[in-house]
Amino acid sequence: MVARRLKSPAVTTTDNAASSLKVTQIVKGVIDDIRANGDKAVRSYSEKFDKWSPESFKLSDAQIQEAICRVSPQTIADIKEAQRNVRTFAEAQRASIKDVEIEIQPGVFLGHRNNPISTAGAYIPGGRYPLLASAHMTILTAKVAGVPHVIACTPPINGEVPAATVAAAHLAGADAIYILGGTQAVAAMALGTETVPKVEFLAGPGNAFVAEAKRQLFGEMGIDLLAGPTEILIVADGQADPFTVATDLLSQAEHGPDSPAVLITNSEEVAREAMRFVDEQLKSLVTAPVAGQAWRDFGEVVVVDNMDEAYKLADEFASEHVQIFTERPREALDKMTNYGALFLGEKTCVSYGDKCIGTNHVLPTKKAGRYTGGLWVGKYLKTQTYQEVVSEKASGELGLLCGRCSRAEQFEGHARSGDLRSWKYLKDGYSWIDEARK
């Protein structure tokens, strides 16, 4: 593959070893303290990091209604419409997941059931931006999956209850809402405290401290995925509009100063014009201090010879969001397999997925799209197998097979469980049974 890089990232990785180690140590200290001291430690860290220490972190019904009343009717209507889209798609996903039972031979039944997790936590970020849509993606999806109890945690913003976020969480179906953020929120939900119930599964994006807390607590609870900085990659041909390309690159670069924004195209003209429009738009973009740094440090523009090379290179990036601006955008469905989500055609942008179109915006980053997809109703379900043998003949024959398989692995105890069934149902003789039953 011959690729010409018109722009390379100024920083080669989004990970800084020293800062990562510091985050790891801080998070471990917070988790250990909350494990030992519960609510007392939670309150201490909330005061320290968020200057927030209310009488109760859990909102009462009256407080929830008061917060909703502070949100404009238009925003409430928009939340409901976005959630309707998310619910519709999530319900279609749930309907596609079937319980299974088959009779693999006469009298031998195998099956699985898709049972929802009993309790789930949703973390809704609120630092640089109040991510209302994260409430739709985490809480509503869990409820469609059938999770009976979902709690939401979101941090205060500038010392106040984030009214619109609370409205989104309530309308999504949260059973309890806590104004609590950061590592202390994740640890409280994972471990359980005097006032915060322990959850079995936690979903939702967050900053480096939230991601590290999820990593350290994985195993004590399930998690959706370990998310890094937001990523966007655009695959474009010579028909693409460079202004649209530039606009969409910056739409994701504004998430954070370490958000990679990449363009791969077979047209040098499109590439250079898109770069020019990025520079031009940064002059007036309100979030330019963030988006500009992301573009400078992590932006990348690559020109390849043809579209097959473009798709191949895009698959190597395995980006979180991949937009396809080509004459035949659905071609990417066959050409690519490594991505968090595809956005096909210039009429479709990543921002739709982030906010309102209905697919889930909690997606794999840092090349994790090579081996996993994003959050969906299936993440909240446990696919659990069962088996039943009702035929004596079948049980006896399986016993013979089990005995041979087990002794090949030198598991005598396993073998004897099989022997016993063939002894009972096929009347086979075993010396160990005769001796043990004396």
UniProtKB/TrEMBL annotation:
One GO MF term: histidinol dehydrogenase activity
Residues the record lists as binding substrate: T230, Q252, H255, H321, D354, E409, H414
InterPro entries documented for this protein: Ald_DH/histidinol_DH, Histidinol_DH_CS, Histidinol_DH_monofunct, Hstdl_DH
Biological processes per GO annotation: L-histidine biosynthetic process
UniProt entry keywords in alphabetical sequence: Amino-acid biosynthesis, Histidine biosynthesis, Metal-binding, NAD, Oxidoreductase, Zinc
Residue positions binding Zn(2+): Q252, H255, D354, H414
Gene3D superfamilies, per database record: 1.20.5.1300, Nitrogenase molybdenum iron protein domain
Reactions accelerated catalytically: L-histidinol + 2 NAD(+) + H2O = L-histidine + 2 NADH + 3 H(+)
Residues that bind NAD(+): Y123, Q184, N207
EC primary class: oxidoreductase
Biochemical pathway: Amino-acid biosynthesis; L-histidine biosynthesis; L-histidine from 5-phospho-alpha-D-ribose 1-diphosphate: step 9/9
UniProt xrefs under CDD domains: Histidinol_dh (cd06572)
Catalytic-site annotation from UniProt: E320, H321
EC number of this enzyme: 1.1.1.23
Source taxon at top rank: Eukaryota
Cofactor: Zn(2+)
GO cellular component, one term: cytosol
UniProt remark on cofactor binding: Binds 1 zinc ion per subunit.
NCBIfam families noted in UniProt: hisD
Protein role: Catalyzes the sequential NAD-dependent oxidations of L-histidinol to L-histidinaldehyde and then to L-histidine.
Similarity section: Belongs to the histidinol dehydrogenase family.
This protein's name: Histidinol dehydrogenase
Organism: Coniochaeta ligniaria NRRL 30616
Record lineage: Eukaryota, Fungi, Dikarya, Ascomycota, Pezizomycotina
